[in-house]
Write a structure and sequence with these properties.
- The structure holds two protein chains of two kinds.
- Chain A is mainly α.
- Chain A has one domain (about 1-55, about 90-245).
- Chain A has nine helices and four strands, in the order αααααββββαααα.
- In chain A, strands 1-2 form a two-stranded antiparallel sheet.
- Chain A is globular.
- The N and C termini of chain A lie far apart (about 60 Å).
- By secondary structure, chain B is mainly α.
- Chain B has helices at about 5-35, 45-55, 60-70.
- Chain B starts with a helix and ends with a helix.
- The chains are: A mainly alpha, B mainly alpha.
- The interface of A and B includes residues 151, 165, 187 and 196 of A.
């Protein structure tokens, strides 16, 4: 684990020596990491977009094959091949992502808490910030929250699948139980909608309590995600949200 | 196993709380990496695990949940 920490730290220090500014180094650090991940993320985003496009055909298959799970899966796989989608889905990649994040966090916060290299102190001031301390003007936390909101709106449509068991059982008792679960799932769904707006607030609050270097990293990586998402999938849900907002302002006049 | 009302309430709360956690995690990882792998099962592995634990007890349910997660790579 510490090999990776050392490596990341060295990359950061190297960038610092090139740019001469720790702030620029952190931004460059973000860009480097995200660029290295592009070969993995771009195909996945494209695959998600294509999966949305083939949703109607998928539904037809589900109706056709109904209860025969084996045949359904085979037909699904063929459909995936036809559209050239690799359903690289699963829970475990998320664990890896979380691990990488924790590593990055420890490296950044550890370094910013005690910014020195070979015994000599490293300059932590960047524009109005002291990167080792929380942003006193709260500009970065607000930026972090706002960019998070923009990104959430862009990916919102169909972001989370309905987490329910299909309600096809013939037994009334089981069906009622499934209905209860569906109600819970609906409640969870509306909660997820609210989560879209609550999450940026949390992000802002957290960002305002950590060294601003970390907040800077977060803003940089979120903006990178926004750009990435925009170039591959377009503005997404942002358009309908903007329309609703302007519609509300117009009707208030 | 007869379930008490308290047990049912606890599990319902756990499931809802887990959904909240899932949503947060999704937004968070999407910001950080630009992509999040999605669960190909329905319901999600975590919800499935909670349901199985509720139905068949901690050990059996937990084992089934873990097996499902491992099959999801």
């Amino acid at each position: 684990m510490s090999i990776f920490s050392e490596f990341l730290l060295n990359v950061l220090l190297f960038l610092n020596s090139i740019t001469g500014s720790l702030g620029l180094a952190i931004i460059a650090f973000t860009i480097v990491i995200r660029s290295l991940l592009l070969p993995a993320t771009i195909p996945s985003i494209k695959a998600t977009r294509r999966m949305k496009e083939m949703q109607p055909e998928l539904n037809k298959l589900k109706k056709k094959f109904g209860n025969d799970k084996q045949a359904l899966q085979l037909a699904q796989l063929e459909l995936y091949k036809k559209y050239n989608v690799n359903p690289l889905s699963g829970c475990l990649p998320q664990l890896v992502q979380l691990g990488v994040l924790i590593l990055l966090y420890r490296v950044l916060v550890g370094f910013l808490g005690n910014p020195e290299f070979n015994g000599s102190h490293i300059e932590t001031s960047f524009l109005w910030l002291d990167l080792g301390k929380p942003d006193p003007l709260y500009i970065l936390p607000v930026a972090a929250g706002l960019s998070q909101l923009v990104l959430s709106l862009m990916i919102a449509p169909g972001a989370e699948k309905r987490d329910i068991v299909p309600n096809k059982s013939k037994k009334k008792v089981v069906r009622e139980a499934n209905e209860k679960e569906e109600n819970i799932a609906e409640m969870a769904q509306s909660m997820q909608q609210q989560m879209l707006y609550i999450m940026p607030v949390f992000t802002g609050i957290i960002a305002s309590n950590f060294p601003s270097g970390l907040a800077l990293y977060w803003v940089a990586t979120t903006i990178f995600s926004i750009a990435q998402q925009y170039f591959i999938s377009g503005p997404g849900g942002l358009v309908s949200y903007a329309k609703r907002l302007t519609g509300r302002f117009a009707s208030n006049q | 196993m007869r379930k008490t009302a308290v047990e049912r309430l606890v599990f319902r709360t756990l499931v809802i709380g887990y959904q909240v956690f899932r949503a947060l995690r999704y937004q968070f990882l999407y910001s950080a990496f630009g992509y999040v792998s999605k669960c190909k099962h329905q319901p999600s592995c975590g919800t499935y695990a909670l349901r199985k634990i509720e139905q068949e007890g901690l050990i059996v349910g937990g084992a089934k949940g873990i097996l499902r997660v491992l099959s999801c790579w």
